Every structure is written in structure tokens, then in C-alpha cells.
Amino acid sequence: MEWMIKVSQLLLSLSILVLLHEGGHFVAARLFKTRVEKFYLFFDFLFPFPNLLKFSLFKFKRGETEYGIGWFPLGGYVKIAGMLDESADKEQLKQPPQSWEYRSKKAWQRLIIILGGIIVNLFLGFFIYSMTLFVWGEKYLPTENAKYGIWVTDSLGFDMGLQHGDMIRSIDNQPIKGFHQIIGRLVIDQAKNIEIERNSERINLPVSDSFVRNAIKRIKKTGIIEPRIPFYVGMFSPDSPAQRAGIQTDDQIIGLNHEPTPFFDQFFEKISLLKDQNIDVTILRGQDTLHFPVHTTSEGKIGVGPQTIKDLEKKGIFEFKVQEYGFFSSIPAGFNKAVKVIVDYAKQLKLMFSPKTEAYKQVGGFKSIAGIFPAEWNWEAFWNLTAFLSLVLAFMNFLPIPMLDGGYMIFILYEMIVGKPPGEKFMEYANTIGFIITLALLLYANLNDFF
Predict the structure, then answer these.
(1) Residue ranges of the domains in the chain?
(2) Has residue 157 got a pLDDT over 70?
(3) How far apart are CA 347 and CA 341, in angstroms?
């Protein structure tokens, strides 16, 4: 059920983005009286093979354009007359150019037609971010409000010198606004040092290249660090020894075998050594301190899970900050957020092409993209992720790869500088290479999800 919700959100998000991206090309083409033969959401063929399994789920024709929904639910396209695109219709290009064809238009007009989709995606990302900030504001846990310091959730954190309870003060001498930006700043910016406070002493820890490489591999599984939390009982596993012993949801576990363990990490580390044993668990229930005899499992557990940061926020233990925006202040804030997303994405792409980081091994396809959507429908998260994907789509299409918008843009700019377009054979070979590159990237990313 969770994956159905994630996939539904992904398909809706991509459908919105594809319709508006291709709509940008469509409007720009019609602006210069260029015929658009097809406008499709999804592909009516097995992309990227234009002659395989050609059929539509729905279609109708209005004027010169056939509108439809294809059966292959990834992407979409507009077929502009006189242009070699996803449909790979080379026969049309063998005929003499017509006044209503793309190839008959001036170079600057063709450039605008090509950039139409990218411009729409950039504006859409900026607009959605502005509106989400206006409606919901920006909620985050200020780094200084993680008042118990950090909880190191992966050995990678210990390897770089971090300890439970450390307070993060700066990264590369720059303060970090929100706690959950810490690892992103360390990895994306390839930081060189992190300043912590431990027992009232300031300490600088170096960040090695190996940390960045290993963090990229493990960040999705462990998070590496989280805010340190007191241990309030949030849930029980089936047949929980703790629940059988009388421990209840919302009890605060503060001790194990008469030793204080006020934080979840302390209790977890101690109990993992006590397998299949009788133990004494000290809890705080309201104003009462109680002791419960519990028998641990063979794995050193008592079948209890801690409350989340959101639960602890409701108790007033963690104080989140919500930065609110009026309509007019949300516009520059949305623009700044969109610019930051694009810059960070460019940095991530740089990491991917750096062999020493091995980030290319973590590239994911549609399964990974679906995985970033929440398991329950959340409109704030949906629109923020749609804005992010819109900017990513704009960025990727801007890359100078033949068959992508950026490739066409490079050819047009060449024509505007030199005074004539590249030769037909060169264009054909370049598009074939672009096709191979695009197909290889799609296969690599999606196979990476499974291997």
C-alpha cells in the first residue's frame, strides 16, 4: 500500500511536469506559427524505440495537432513538424522544407522553441517553492535547538571522531541553520572540517575524502547522525517482553539495571550486550519512578521503539522553528530556494563524475525517485518534491547532450555563430550518439536500483 501511494505521487508529479514542459515547447512553436503534429502525455511507443508497440490509450485531433495519452507511462513529447525528435521521423526531413516547419524558422526562433520547456520548468519550480513557503512556511529544527547534541547512528560518524552528545557548531567555519542540513553540507560541499562542542570545549574535526565517499553509500540507510533523544516509549513489537512486563506507551525509560540511561542510544548500547537475561528497567511515568523486571530476547531486545522527533516536539522537548512568509516575501524566498536547489544539484552531479567519491554507484532510477515521496499523501511534501523534480528536469535538459534540449541548443548556437547549421550527416550521427547516451543512462540508473 505504501508503494502504491509513492508511485501514485510520482506519476502525478511527472505527469504535471511533462505536460507543462512539453506545453512550453508547444506554446513557443505555435507562437512562431510552427505546426505541432502530436502532443502526448506518456509515450505511444516503447520509449526510446519509436517503432515498437505503437498505440495510444486515448487520442483526439483538434486542428493540426493530435492530442493523446500513450501507454508507456514515463515522460511524453510534442512532435514538431520538421524536427527530429523522440519520434525519430526521418522521412519527413527528406521532403523540401515547408514554411510551417521548425527547420524553416529563423535560428533565434528555433532556440526559443527548444528552450520553451526548460523555461517553463524553471519558472514552475520557482513558483511552487514560493507558494509552498507562502502556504506552509519553512519548518526546521535549528541546530542549536538539538539541545542534547547528536546521536551517532552509523560507525562512520565515530570514525571521523564524533561522539554521542556532541554539539555541532559550524562546518568549514559556517554555522548551519537547520540540523538536518548538516550531512548534506558535509557531503555536497565536500567540507574540510566540522567544529563541535564537547564538555564545553570546542574541537575541530577534519573531514576526509573517505567520509564523503562512504557517506554517499550509507546516508539513505542510516542518516549517520540524528538529534539525540530521551527514550520515551513510542511503540511495541508483537509479543513485546516490555509490554508483557507492564511498561506502557509514553513511559520514559531512564535506567537499566540501576544505571542511568536517559537517552535512547545509551539504553540501546547497554541492552544489546544483555541477551536472554533478566534485567531491571527503570521508567518515569508521570511523577512516579517505577522498576520493571523484563527478560530480554536472544538478540538483546525488549521489543520497544522510541518516540519520533515529531512526538517529542509535541511534548515541548524539541522546539522547531517555522519561518512564515507573506505573499510578496515568499516570491524572493522561493526564487532563492530554487537557485540553491539548482546549485546543490550541480554539485551533486560533480560528485557523480568524481571517481574518488564513487557517487556514480548510488545513481538511482524511477524506483529511487518514487522512494523519496512520503508513504502517506502529504500535499506539502508532494509540491516541494514536484518543484525539486521540475528544476532537476530543467537542469538535465540543459545539458549539451544530443537528443536533449541542451543538445539542440548547442547546434543552434553553432549555426548562429558560424552562419550555417551543422551538416545533416553530423546531426544524424550526433543524435544517434545522444540516443545511445540517454538509453545507457536510463538503463544504468534503473538497473542500479535493483543491483
Answers:
(1) 108-137+326-451, 143-224, 231-306
(2) yes
(3) 10
Count helices and strands in the chain by DSSP H and E runs: 13, 17
What is the per-residue DSSP string for 312-367?
A: HHHTTSS--EEE---HHHHHHHHHHHHHHHHHHHHHHHHHHT-TTTTGGGG---HH
Q: Report residue 67's pLDDT band, with 50, 70 and 90 as the boundaries.
A: very high
Dihedrals phi, psi of 211, to nearest 5 degrees: -60, -45
CB 211 within 8 A of CB 156: yes
User: Reduced to 3 states, what is the DSSP secondary structure of residue 295?
Assistant: strand
- pLDDT at position 221 is 67
The model's pTM: 0.86
pLDDT tens column, 94-121: 677 788 898 889 999 999 999 999 999 9
Per CATH, which fold does 143-224 belong to? Pdz3 Domain (2.30.42)
Which pairs with CB-CB distance under 8 Å and at least 24 residues apart come from 358-361?
Answer: 358/213, 358/216, 358/217, 359/213, 359/216, 361/217, 361/448
The Cβ of residue 440 has, within 10 Å, a number of other Cβ atoms equal to 10
Model confidence at 27, in pLDDT bands (50, 70, 90)?
Answer: very high
Instruction: Single out the residue of 90, 86, 7, 81 nearest to residue 46, CA to CA.
Output: 86
Q: Is the peptide bond prior to 262 cis by the omega test (within 30 degrees of 0)? A: no
Q: Residue 384 has what pLDDT? A: 95
Name the architecture of domain 231-306.
Answer: Roll (2.30)
Q: Is 21 helix (H, G, I), strand (E, B) or coil?
A: helix
Pairing state between β 36-43 and 65-70? parallel
* Nearest to 16, CA basis, from 161, 121, 147, 137: 121
For cell 541548443, name the residue: 409
* 275 and 337 Cβ atoms separated by less than 8 Å: no
Give one DSSP letter per residue of 187-217, joined into a string.
HHTT-SEEEEEETTEEEEEE--HHHHHHHHH
- At 92, is the pLDDT very low, low, confident or very high (cuts 50, 70, 90)? low
Of the chain, the end-to-end C-alpha distance in Å amounts to 24
| Residues facing residue 195 across a β-bridge | 170, 204
